[in-house]
Design goal:
- This protein is mainly α and 80 residues long.
- It has a domain of 55 residues.
- The protein is built from one helix and no strands.
Length: 80
């Protein structure tokens, strides 16, 4: 037995009957917010970027050292 819903959607758009364009005050407020968030996140982002670079540098050297050790062990096992 199928029953149709007795309710209709009751949602409104955020423009509430106005044009759905972005106003200059909204853009200004958004710009202020992004500038504030960027200033707060600045030192943390710098730290995380430095940590990422350090991790990449260490990872490159770990792989190089592991490759050299493998080559030396292989060469020694062939000679011996």
């Amino acid at each position: 037995m199928s029953r149709s819903p007795d309710f209709c959607s009751a949602w409104d758009t955020s423009c509430a009957g106005q044009p759905a364009d972005v106003s200059l005050t909204e853009l200004s407020t958004l710009g202020d917010h992004l500038a504030h968030c960027g200033a707060v996140r600045g030192p943390l982002d710098t730290f995380l970027a430095g940590a990422g670079l350090l991790q990449a540098l260490v990872a490159e050297h770990v792989v190089t050292v592991a490759l050299l050790v493998t080559l030396v062990v292989g060469a020694v096992s062939l000679v011996a």
